[in-house]
């Protein structure tokens, strides 16, 4: 996985940044951190989207009714995935805790998160204008 990320970064040297999703274990996060630090491109933000468990279950069951993986139709499997997340992935925040890089978003849909997400050059689109 780290090699793929390195290749993508090298293929886009003028990019102002990257968003990484899917890191599930501390070993993966540490490997990413090591690779980025070797390129003098440290992690600057971690975005944690917080959704109550019942809302997650409702959304995933709804997705399972029309699309998504077959597991999204089984509430017990969904709840087990949430437990696995809490056990293995949520602790990754501890790697950045205290650095000011962790940004938590507890409510709002995509637009609510988009408007509150920090970042270099981040601007809120003005009503009636497209964001450039």
Structure, described:
It is a single chain. This protein is mainly α. It is built from 5 helices and 2 strands; from the N terminus they run ααβααβα. It has helices at residues 2-11, 26-38, 53-66, 75-89, 110-116, and strands spanning 46-49, 102-105. A two-stranded parallel sheet has the order 1-2. The two termini are 31 Å apart. Residues 120-132 have low confidence and may be disordered.
Can you give keywords for this protein?
single chain; 132 residues; mainly alpha; two-stranded parallel sheet; 5 helices; 2 strands; 45% helix; globular
User: How far apart are the termini?
Assistant: 31 Å
Poorly predicted ranges (pLDDT <50, ≥5 residues)? 120-132
Run of helices and strands: HHEHHEH
Q: Specify the biggest β-sheet.
A: 2 strands, parallel
Q: What's a quick, concise take on this entry?
A:
The chain has five helices and two strands, in the order ααβααβα.
């Amino acid at each position: 996985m780290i090699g793929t990320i390195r290749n993508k970064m090298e293929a886009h040297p003028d990019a102002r940044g990257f968003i990484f999703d899917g890191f599930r274990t501390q070993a993966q996060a540490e490997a990413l951190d090591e690779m980025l630090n070797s390129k003098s491109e440290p992690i600057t933000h971690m975005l944690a989207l917080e959704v109550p468990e019942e809302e997650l279950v409702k959304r995933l069951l709804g997705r399972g009714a029309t699309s998504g993986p077959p597991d999204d139709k089984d509430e017990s499997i969904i709840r087990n995935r949430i437990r696995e997340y809490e056990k293995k992935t949520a602790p990754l925040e501890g790697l950045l805790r205290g650095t000011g890089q962790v940004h938590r978003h507890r409510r709002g849909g995509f637009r609510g998160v988009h408007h509150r997400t920090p970042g270099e050059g981040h601007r809120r689109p003005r009503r009636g204008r497209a964001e450039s």
